[in-house]
Fold:
Amino acid sequence: MLKKLTAAAFSATLAVAALPATAQIYKGETSAPGGATHAAMVAIAKIANDKADIDIQINDGQTLTSAAIKNAQGKIDFSIVPPAVYVFMTKGQAMYKKMGQDAIDASQNLRSIFAFTGGAFHPMTYADSGITSLSDLKGKKVFTGPPSGAASKNVEEVLRIETGLEAGKDYEAIHLNWGAGTQAMMDGKLDAMFNATAVGSANVEQIGLTNKIRFLGIDPEKLNSQEYKDYLKVPGRAFGEIPANTYSGQVNEASVTVPMYIMVSATRADLDEDLVYNITKAFWENLDSVHESSALLKAITKETAFDALNIPLHKGAYRYYVEAGFDVPDAVKPQ
Structure:
């Protein structure tokens, strides 16, 4: 009996040894579904798997500021990073203030692959709320973004510049994750929210299907003010428009000027150069498939790959861009 068990165990060992080695799994984090930041990470992972045989598993619903520092610390391999967040990390400021020098040190390990338009902040309220302008948000409950996120800092700065209203003093700034914020809006627990997503997003459309909505725009004549010029000095910030009739239930009869934002697909400097080269090559050589995967990604083009990019390129990505003839700005070339 003992001999039979020993023989069986030996055979099982041989069978296990004959199996192919398990392929390495890489980790990526991104925001909740519904926006370009999520769609971009999904597209990167799908192309990497389909065209380069590289397995990237995505953990979504995450705060981008948290994913960025985890990426820089080497705890994950890929993330989507707002350019302003990288600035804060390199200086140990804002959401990284408590980390101080640890954040500054970690930032040295963050590298980029490409930049893309992430979307627009949709300042929205229900049409019957009595709120018709951003100034009307005084004394109201306003979702500005996740806690300790770049979005809430951005939104609250715009509200201060546009109206003079201060978060926590003149209005109640509600900080939840994006999914919870949308649900709170749909449940009638908020007076207004700034939904950060691509123009034409299904998340906003979902709200407009059940209630008429109004977008609260910025006064275009104020965009030339020194305060807004200073606001735009932070990398990744921009302004754009939500056209009339973009969403079901939208009552705005004209386009609305809103803050927009650029995002960066990022990785870590110590990730294998050939791996990042292969992912970058596969992504750009299959850009049509990327565009087909989501209408939110049609703004990704070779011409805008380095717009607002302030994180140095990974050596693997840079190698591909040189080979493919991209005009790479000197400021983001690897050292």
About this structure: The chain has two domains: 26-118+263-332, 119-261.
